[in-house]
Write a structure and sequence with these properties.
Blueprint (H helix, E strand, L loop, with lengths): L19 H5 L5 E6 L2 E2 L4 E2 L7 H8 L4 E7 L9 H7 L4 E8 L4 H8 L5 E4 L4 E3 L6 H12 L4 H8 L8 E4 L12 E11 L8 E8 L2 E5 L9 E5 L4 E4 L6 E5 L7 E5 L3 H16 L4 E3 L20 E3 L24 E3 L20 E3 L20 E3 L20 E3 L20 E3 L7 E3 H6 L5 E3 L7 E3 L11 E3 L7 E4 L7 E3 L7 E5 L5 E3 L7 E5 L7 E3 L10 H5 L5 E3 L10 H4 L6 E3 L19 E3 L28 E3 L20 E3 L19 E3 L20 E3 L10 H6 L5 E3 L17 E8 L8 E9 L4 E8 L5 H20 L3 H15 L3 H4 L1 E11 L8 E8 L3 E6 L2 E4 L10 H9 L20 E2 L12 E7 L3 E7 L1 H6 L2 H8 L5 H14 L6 E8 L52 H7 L13 H4 L25 E5 L18 E4 L2 E5 L25 H6 L32 H5 E3 L5 E3 L6 H7 L24 H17 L22
Parallel strand pairs: 4-8, 16-17, 17-18, 18-19, 19-20, 20-21, 22-24, 23-25, 24-26, 26-28, 27-29, 28-30, 29-31, 30-32, 32-33, 33-34, 34-35, 35-36, 36-37, 37-38, 38-39, 39-40
Antiparallel strand pairs: 1-5, 2-3, 4-5, 6-7, 6-8, 9-10, 9-15, 10-11, 11-12, 13-14, 14-15, 41-51, 42-43, 43-44, 44-45, 44-48, 45-49, 46-47, 46-50, 50-51, 52-54, 53-54, 55-56
Helix pairs in contact: 5-6, 12-13
């Protein structure tokens, strides 16, 4: 199956010269027919089953050429098309080579087909018009998804996996026999009437809906048909004939048909089904989403149909069962034709006088005919999601019309015909283009009480006169562009929604006001006059209010007050003393104290989280003058994020309290809440608790106790046993003992935490690859499926592989990131047809564009998952939230494409996101094209936080960064973020990933600028070695670093420190490592032409003949952090280097040498080295005095100074023993340390006696081979010890 064999019906052979297609047949197509082997898991073709090399060459000549996969119909099943195609393993498949100009008619002519059919997302199937161009349809589809490159579009169009989103058929892929309400059918002997005047004859009998249809077998439906209505009739057994039934209709002139069946099973089946039909009246037919172009003929003979649902089909006008024939439904009252792409209003529908309900939404209408005024019985008319700009005056004749929906059209003002439709009490005009609201027009519509103008372009209001409007009671103005709103003329206004505008001032009438929702504005003043005596709910969160309005304090019936996320500095005493208030939300303000209560109040929920409270009034929970507790009815109390040190002991008087949240304070004494009879949830995490006083018996209702983050709290075994019955007990786990040997300095490390919350499944997955692409970068991702867990798991397993493939094809971060998301969208296959997933992907790689930066971070996302970078302690958002509420541009795009946005701000009632991976059936409203941002990483970048929607809904960027900045363990940091979000009320799945960054030039380990490696006499100032010997072991010149940032091979480490390993290639000792070698690169500066990725070992291995544990004496104890392995000692060391500083006591430069430049002082350092463990032990190596001849390289400090994991540089002067350097370094606790490392002179590697002569001869031979003058004796001074420690 490697090569493609030409099909028999191909109208064109593949061109040998490129001009052959056009010369043989216009349009140039070739049909390749074969039975393709299928992959059952993906329901697509195998990659090896594609066309051959000749076809590929023909495609490469022009990007406008391509391939269309033409699937054969599968009639073996009567289920959905997706199931039928998946169940067949031998369906015919034709590969049609064509161009974007090839019409469907030409492909049909070559295939011998009548029509082509297009299926989108495994769902609906529509017939292509002869002039439509299939390949152009595919190209347009891919372009709208987000592909930009024409060559890539051509490649994607030829991918068979695309069939899960877009597929062409040569025949209609499924049978529709079950759609016309045929319950039973068969050929039986039939006799008309109960008498024997008629003879038995063979007839086709069909039980359809509520009718029995008898017709000739030969002519079937085209001949004479006898229709017997069964509603109210009878089904009786014929006693004189075996297995026979008598079907009778109702009424005075009832007719009867006798049907004789062949078997008892058929007789019983017909009797059961007919009995149901006779006894029940079936009046509703649902044929939605069945790819119908016409109504089945049998349906017209069902006399009882009153409601017909044909939503999401492709109904035609002029067809045998098209819309023009609907007048045959004599009793039809309800008709749903939404989402049929009719284009124009079917005028003949106006001839169905019985219609009372008509739904024509989303059909692309630009106008309505005047004949619509003849539907006098019409009560409900839905025209949402069209392109209407005006309504005909004849619509005013529909005096019974009580509901008219014209949302998401193109109206610029309220139609005047509303004034004639006196039965209408609601104006539904959401999602139009109204910019000016004229209150005078609404005043003339005295019958209108509800006005819905959300998601318009409202900017101003016009008031014609001062006379008030006494009719409007409900107004919805959400998601507009209003800056000031004065509705004081609406004196009977009861409810107002004005969220997500730009309001600075709001003025209302308070005579009838009951509920006010004005969240997410810029309000500084809210005026309501008179005082709203009927007000029960007031929500003013996320504004700029500095105080609670006075009129709100005087409202006598207010029950809910939400003023969180404002600038309040105090809570008025009148509010806290309200006798009607049940719920008070004042979190995220600047409140410093609460007033002292005097009387009993019925408050049930008090939320004062994230304020500046230092103490609570001592009498807050005490008894009032009437001997009742002041907060006796308090059920929920949230004190988190303040500066409280104690909670008053009188809280024990709150007998109804079931939830106490007081995390992130300074509470040191456990509050007396374990005696409350109804306590269920207690969160005291991140405090300063030291002990817990436990009563004799805990309340049986206690379910959740969170004590994490209390570092000084120690729970005894007895206490833990007491808490054993609690469903959820959260305490800090004791850290596992670690040694310095396990501490490694890396560029990044991550921690992941996922919590299911109160849901029974976890729909969040994460991707973490610290060593991506053989170690040159890292990839982190977060995937949130909302209610499905399948897509997050699929993306977790596949997205990294897709990114790796795309990185190899393009170096442009925008291109390969966008293609990664689009290809992952395609690879979801059938699972992505109905399900969707938010996705976030972060890719860290060496910055090839800017050599001054070490790494760059590229972030791409769709949906609601976000990434935040902590730079210098400040949060830097890197993602974009694609939701209708937070992205006005995306909301406008969805509106322009005529999607229906429900009142809860969801596209078609499904999701609030406008871009997702998956959900292909919501195309083109939901797209997979991601938002992409790139930023170079600097030394100021501390960490990266990835989180899903639930995390960022409950945590701000600043709060999340501040919460984990000083947490050393990334896993503990991630868990802390999840715990915080849950303590703030998050009950959904929450996921957080924290990536600690250690990026900076001090982490460089490469030889960048051609530094000449020193020989035995130090640096050679002028000597150039043309043919340096090849290293015996692989170096890190491939430019790849593993998880330890940058490593060196074992032989490199051994040679550089002067090890005398017994291996043959290491017997040369120190001098072998000082020979010139190819330039070494690190992850910060990868080699531009690196070939094969090689991971280098992260430990140095030394051999010693002194003792098994590598020590000089058996009396010495093993050094902490050193792992012994037989006669070898393996030390996990950091092989990083950094740019050193000038030594304070460096040798004086000779007179003839130029003065060092400032760049030399900052980038290069000279370290003296004394060889040991050799015959020349104790002799100092000279240091070159000519700095200008020293080529600057960051690897200098790696060769002549050891950089510890904490950032310090240890010069290798008295000893080159890396074991000493690694073991004597202090433990890294909180960043860098300033104390210098003290070297132990006793711990040294000593050359065995049997190797001393050999090493001496090799050292002497090597010194004589280099023609360099010996330095003077005064130059042989030992350089003092210096450490490069960060502040």
């Amino acid at each position: 199956m490697g090569e493609v064999e030409p099909g028999p019906a191909g109208p064109l052979e593949p061109p040998e010269p490129p001009e052959a297609p056009a010369s043989r047949r216009p349009g140039g197509i070739r049909v390749l027919k074969r039975n393709m082997k299928r992959n059952g898991s993906r329901n697509c073709l195998n990659r090896r089953s594609r066309f051959g090399s000749r076809e590929r060459d023909w495609l490469r000549e022009d990007v406008k050429r391509g391939c269309v996969y033409l699937y054969g119909a599968d009639t073996t099943t009567a289920t959905t098309t997706t199931t039928s195609s998946a169940s067949s393993s031998s369906s015919d498949l034709h590969l049609v080579l064509c161009t974007v100009e090839t019409p469907a008619s030409e492909i049909c002519a070559g295939e011998g087909r009548e029509s082509l059919y297009l299926q989108l997302h495994g769902d609906l199937v529509r017939r292509l018009e002869p002039t439509e161009r299939p390949l152009q349809i595919v190209y347009d589809y891919l372009s709208r998804l987000g592909f930009d490159d024409p060559a890539r579009i051509q490649e994607e169009a030829a991918n068979p996996d695309l069939g899960c989103m877009l597929r062409f058929y040569g025949e209609k892929p499924c049978q529709m026999d079950h759609l016309d309400r045929i319950l039973l059918s068969g050929i039986y002997n039939v006799r008309k009437g109960k008498t024997q005047l008629h003879k038995w004859a063979e007839r086709l009998v069909v039980l359809c809906g509520t009718c029995l249809i008898v017709s000739s077998v030969k002519d079937c439906q085209t001949g004479k048909m006898h229709i017997l209505p069964l509603v109210g009739g009878k089904v009786e057994e014929v006693k004189r004939r075996q297995y026979s039934l008598a079907f009778s209709s109702a009424g005075a002139q009832a007719q009867t048909y006798l049907v004789s069946f062949e078997t008892l099973a058929e007789y019983q089946r017909w009797q059961r089904q007919a009995s149901k039909v006779v006894s029940q009246r079936i009046s509703t037919v649902d044929l939605s989403c069945h790819s119908l172009e016409e109504v089945p003929e049998h349906l017209f003979y069902s006399q009882d149909i009153t409601y017909l649902n044909l939503r999401h089909n492709f109904m035609q006008l002029e067809r045998p069962g098209g819309l023009d024939t609907f007048y045959k439904f004599s009793q039809l009252k309800g008709l749903n034709l939404s989402h049929n792409k009719l284009g124009s209003f079917p005028v003949l529908l106006c001839e169905i006088p019985t219609l009372t309900e008509l739904n024509l939404s989303c059909n692309g209408f630009h106008d309505l005919p005047s004949q619509i005024g003849s539907l006098l019985n019409l009560q409900t008319l839905c025209l949402d999601g069209n392109f209407l700009t005006a309504l005909p005056e004849e619509l005013g004749n529909l005096q019974q019309l009580s509901s008219l929906g014209i949302s998401f059209n193109n109206f610029s003002q309220i139609p005047e015909v509303y004034e004639k439709l006196t039965m209408l009490d609601k104006v539904f005009m959401a999602g139009n283009r109204v910019e000016v609201l004229n209150l005078g027009v609404l005043k003339r519509m005295s019958h209108v009480k509800h006005v819905d103008l959300r998601m318009n372009h409202l900017k101003t209001m016009i008031i014609e006169n001062l006379e008030g409007n006494k009719y409007i009671t409900h107004m919805d103005l959400r998601d507009n562009r209003l800056t000031d709103l004065d509705l004081s003329s609406l004196c009977n206004l009861e409810q107002l929604h004005c969220e997500r505008n730009q309001l600075r001032e709001l003025t209302l009438s308070g005579f009838s006001l009951r509920t006010l929702y004005a969240n997410s504005n810029r309000l500084t003043t809210v005026n309501v006059y008179p005082v709203p005596s009927l007000l029960t709910s007031l929500e003013l969160s996320r504004n700029l209010l500095e105080c609670v309005p006075d009129w709100a304090c005087e409202a006598k019936k207010i029950e809910i007050l939400d003023v969180s996320y404002n600038l309040l500095t105090e809570v008025p005493m009148r509010i806290l003393s309200s006798l009607s208030l049940r719920k008070l939300m004042v979190g995220h303000n600047h409140v410093q104290s609460l007033p002292t209560l005097v009387e009993h109040i019925p408050l049930e929920v008090l939320d004062v989280q994230h304020n500046l409270l230092t103490r609570l009034p001592d009498t807050l929970f005490s008894k009032a003058l009437n001997k009742l507790n002041k907060l006796e009815q308090l059920e929920e109390l949230n004190l988190s994020g303040n500066k409280l040190k104690t909670i008053p002991t009188t809280i024990a008087n709150c007998k109804r309290l079931h939830t106490l949240v007081a995390h992130s304070n300074h509470i040191s004494i456990f509050p007396e809440i374990l005696q409350l009879p109804q306590i269920q949830f207690v969160d005291l995490s991140c405090n300063d608790l030291t002990e817990i006083l436990i009563p004799e018996a805990l309340p049986a209702t206690l379910q959740d106790l969170d004590l994490t983050g209390n570092t000084n709290l120690v729970l005894e075994h007895k206490t833990l046993d007491t808490f054993s019955h609690i469903t959820t007990l959260k305490i800090d786990q004791k850290p596992l003992p670690t040694t310095d040997s396990t501490v490694t300095s890396t560029f990044w490390s991550h921690g992941l935490a996922e919590m299911a919350g109160q849901r029974n499944k976890l729909c969040v997955s994460a991707l973490a690859v610290d060593n991506f692409a053989e170690g040159v970068g890292a990839v982190y991702g977060m995937f949130d499926g909302d209610r499905n867990e399948e897509l997050p798991r699929l993306l977790q397993c596949t997205m990294a592989d897709v990114l790796l493939e795309e990185v190899q094809q393009s170096t442009n971060d925008t291109v390969f990131m966008a293609n990664t998301f689009l290809v992952s969208h395609r690879k979801l296959g059938m699972a992505g047809q109905k399900l969707g997933c938010s996705a976030l992907l972060c890719y860290i790689r060496p910055d090839t564009a800017d050599p001054m930066n070490s790494f760059s971070l590229t972030v791409a996302n769709v949906g609601t998952c976000q990434a935040v970078l902590c730079r210098g302690g400040k949060p830097v958002p890197l993602s974009k939230v694609f939701s209708l509420e937070q992205d006005p541009e995306e909301a406008q795009r969805v509106k322009d494409q005529k999607a229906i946005i429900t009142e809860d701000n969801k596209v078609n009632g499904v999701t609030c996101c406008t871009r997702l991976l998956g959900c292909t059936y919501l195309y083109p409203w939901i797209l997979p094209k991601p938002h992409i941002s790139s930023t170079p990483l600097t030394i100021q970048d501390e960490l990266l936080i990835l989180g899903n929607k639930a995390l960022w809904e409950h945590l701000s960027y600043t709060e999340a960064v501040n919460a984990v900045r000083h947490v050393q363990d990334p896993l503990a940091a991630a868990k802390k973020l999840c715990t915080l979000s849950q303590s703030y009320g998050c009950q959904d799945n929450v996921g957080a990933m924290v990536v600690y960054l250690n990026i900076g030039e001090e982490g460089c380990t490469c030889e960048m600028n051609g530094l000449t490696l020193p020989g035995p006499m130090g640096f050679a100032s002028t000597t150039i070695i043309k043919d340096p010997p090849k290293p015996t072991t692989p170096s890190s010149s491939s430019g790849i670093a593993s998880e330890f940032s940058s490593e060196m091979s074992t032989s490199e480490v051994s040679s550089e420190v002067g090890s005398t390993a017994s291996d043959e290639h290491n017997t040369v000792g120190l001098d072998a490592g000082l020979l010139p070698r190819p330039e070494r690169r690190c992850s910060l500066h990868p080699a531009p032409t690196s070939g094969v990725f090689q991971r280098q070992p992260s430990c140095a291995t030394f051999s010693s003949n002194q003792s098994d544990n590598g020590l000089d004496s058996d009396d010495d104890q093993p050094v902490e952090g050193v792992i012994t392995n037989g006669s070898k000692v393996e030390v996990e060391v950091d092989i990083h280097c950094c740019r050193g500083r000038d030594l304070e006591n460096s040798p004086t430069l000779p007179e003839n040498s130029p003065a060092p430049c400032p760049e030399d002082r900052s980038r290069g350092s000279l370290f003296g080295i004394r060889r040991q463990n050799s015959v020349n032990s104790g002799i100092l190596l000279p240091v070159s005095k000519d700095r200008t001849e020293l080529q600057k390289s960051p690897s200098t400090s790696c060769l002549y100074g050891k950089k510890l994991s904490n950032g310090s540089i240890v010069p290798l002067e008295d000893s080159l023993n890396l074991i000493e350097v690694a073991t004597e370094a202090p433990k890294k606790k909180t960043g860098y340390f300033a104390a210098p490392t003290q070297l132990e002179p006793e711990d040294q590697f000593v050359i065995p006696r049997d190797l001393e002569e050999e090493v001496k001869e090799q050292m002497k031979h090597h010194q004589e081979s280099r023609h360099e003058p010996e330095p003077s004796e005064e130059d042989r001074t030992e350089l003092p010890e210096e450490f490069d420690t960060a502040l």
